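Re: weekly structure request thread

Next one in the queue (380 aa):
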Amino acid sequence: MPIIQTTVDCPIYDSFRVQQVAGLMDVPIQERAAQAFAVEVPDLAEDWQIGAIVGPSGSGKSTIAREAFGKDLYTGSKWPAKGSLIDGFPQSIPIKQITGMLTSVGFSQPPAWLKPYSVLSNGQKFRADLGRVLLGDGKPAAEMPRLVVFDEFTSLVDRTVAQVGSLAVAKTIRRSPQLRFVAVACHYDFLEWLAPDWVVDMNSQQLARGQLWQRPAIELEVHRSVPKIWPLFKPHHYLNASVPSACRYYVASLKSGEPVALAVVGNHFGRFTKYGDQVGKRTISRIVVLPDYQGIGIAGRLLDCVGALLTQERLQVTIRSGHPGMIQLLQRAKHWRIIQYLPHGFESKKVMTQGVSHALGGSLGRGVVSAMYLPPPAEK
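Done, posted below.
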């Protein structure tokens, strides 16, 4: 367990204004200003996956991170001034890896992926940078960083984005045993969400080990809503903005009442027989999580809740999606079973219901998965 000892200094240039400030504030004038640091930092040979170095501006966070981890300190990527965000990733990274990583760090907005990096919000830029550095920034697989030290972590983003984004990053890192991550930040409010294995606090220049914070629980309430809720979520869905008529709307809200996610459930065209009984079928046609809350598992919880509610009405529940993140979610979901996979999508078609023609949108060129909700077995 090394002790990082370093001193930073810089010259002091004498001038009339320097003399004025020195006189007003009783500051002694020296030839050079110097500050020494001696901080214990865990060694890479030790068993840890996530760490943090925190403290106010000027406390020496970046200096210690640079001394301890050197070339692994990430201070930002160069993005093209023109072209989409997706095109800003190195060409050596397959598109599926890019979209999968962006989704895993909570940037699950395909329309925004097509925009230039420069026009994105600070929260979107933050997650795009995270996705890029965690992918190795185009390095060969053998040279991909097993350690990412992210300077100015969450410094420029809204604090809700900082906290939720930290949870998304933690989930991503914990799922990737080959990765290690160190956050270097001037804030402290993200620590309970990131749940690091160790923290160096530059205020005291002390190292604390163990997960000292218990990650806050995110309690959601799911309830039926009305069609006028759709415009709040409409800009954040990756498909067209229209929704079928006669849909049900299920909203997931925080305890404060703030809506964060929406599931739109439509009628399925036709009925089917199960064990001789006529049973209805419903399809989740849209599921949207607001950007600030993406990447922390809300979509999966909402899917399970809606599936359980509709199953209580003796309805079979399915979902069809071509979104890479949703496909990954359904593949590992405990209560959803993949019933169809179309690697190249399907053509649009029209169906007739009670003499009325309905258009079903196609998805040629992209993989589409259909899944069915499987309720947990009844308790005996």
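The chain has a mean pLDDT of 84. Residues 201 and 215 are 19 Å apart (CA to CA).
Next request, please.
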